[in-house]
Write a structure and sequence with these properties.
Elements lengths: L1 H28 L4 H5 L7 H10 L6 H13 L13 H37 L1 H16 L2 H15 L12 H35 L2 H8 L4 H38 L5 H10 L3 H29 L4 E2 L2 E2 L1
Length: 315
């Protein structure tokens, strides 16, 4: 297990390095230049423009600029924002808590409503199964941004139950402010998880070993818990992990809709302004989250089913 984790962490480091180069190159080739945002559309002389480019190192070749950024990151320096002149690490530190609260809240909703609804529908069937299938189809078909607007219109503007803007302060106030954004963010993923969980449970419920266990007089609750739900959790764990990892990227739309000061909103502004250091830092966070979540999923496989092999080793 330990060797497997070390190998995966090494692979994650290589992935981060490759991703950083690709993203930096994409930003370099994208239309527009950083200095055009720095001058805010004003007409400046070529001398002033050349001075700006020299001040921010924009005249350096691409590989040299990337190398300077990379060596800084390896020493703990994420660079400085071109537009705000703030330390990128400080910018991220002020934005990450909001995104963490939002994604954690949405992940909890996905697990509670997606997994639980799928398990109950798969075990009981009937009208409840039909309701879950219908609800998951509707939830998956509703875009996140439209869900955000609909939730704001109904529960904030019409009913006045939840605030519209801001992330709140303190635990209870933050939960109140982030409820609608978390629901909008979790809705499509919860629908997918519920559908896949229901399918996995139904497949396990109809297997031969379940029928044999019931024929031997094993109580239904024991069979459901040990033979059906536990075996169904392997594919469910994968889809839950993938959707939770995707929440960090999907939070960008929700943060923009609810004007939250999270990492997603910071990324949108940085891309528009070609703020290389900020884009790179946020991109590294996103890639790292995906890598860590995938590692956690692989480890959970071994916890759920000890027969699973990790990297050629017995868990």
């Amino acid at each position: 297990m330990q060797r497997f984790v070390i190998r995966r962490l090494g692979a994650l480091a290589v992935t981060l390095l490759f991703s950083s180069f690709v993203i930096y190159g994409a930003m370099y080739l994208a239309p527009g230049t950083p200095e055009s945002f720095l001058v805010q559309g004003r007409t400046v002389s070529p001398e002033v423009l050349a001075s700006i480019r020299a001040q921010y190192g924009l005249d350096d070749p691409f590989l040299l600029r990337y190398w300077h950024w990379l060596t800084g990151v390896l020493t703990g320096d994420l660079g400085e924002s071109l537009t705000t002149r703030q330390d990128v690490a400080s910018l991220l530190a002020s934005r990450i808590p909001t995104t963490v609260w939002l994604t954690a809240y949405a992940a909890l909703l996905i697990v509670v409503f997606g997994v639980v609804a799928g398990v109950v529908a798969g075990l009981r069937g009937g009208l409840l199964d039909t309701a879950v299938l219908l609800g998951s189809s509707v939830g998956f078909a509703v875009p996140t941004f439209f869900a955000a607007l609909l939730l704001m219109s109904v529960f904030s503007v019409t009913l006045g139950w939840f605030p519209v803007f801001g992330a709140g302060s303190g635990f209870s106030d933050r939960i109140l402010h982030l409820t609608l954004p978390a629901v909008a963010l979790a809705l499509p993923a919860a629908a997918v998880v519920a559908r896949i969980t229901r399918t996995a449970v139904v497949e396990e419920r109809d297997t031969e070993h379940v029928s044999v266990a019931l024929a031997r007089g094993v109580p239904w609750r024991t069979v459901a818990r040990r033979h059906i739900v536990r075996n169904a959790m392997l594919p469910v764990t994968t889809i839950v992990g993938v959707n939770i990892a995707a929440l960090v990227a999907g939070a960008t739309v929700v943060e923009h809709a609810f004007t939250l000061d999270g990492v997603g909103a910071l990324l949108i502004n940085a891309v528009q302004q070609k703020d290389f250091a900020v884009v790179q830092a946020v991109a590294l966070v996103l890639v790292a989250v995906f890598g860590v979540v995938n590692l956690v999923i692989d480890v959970l496989y071994a916890v759920i089913d000890p027969r699973v092999q990790l990297g050629g080793e017995s868990a």
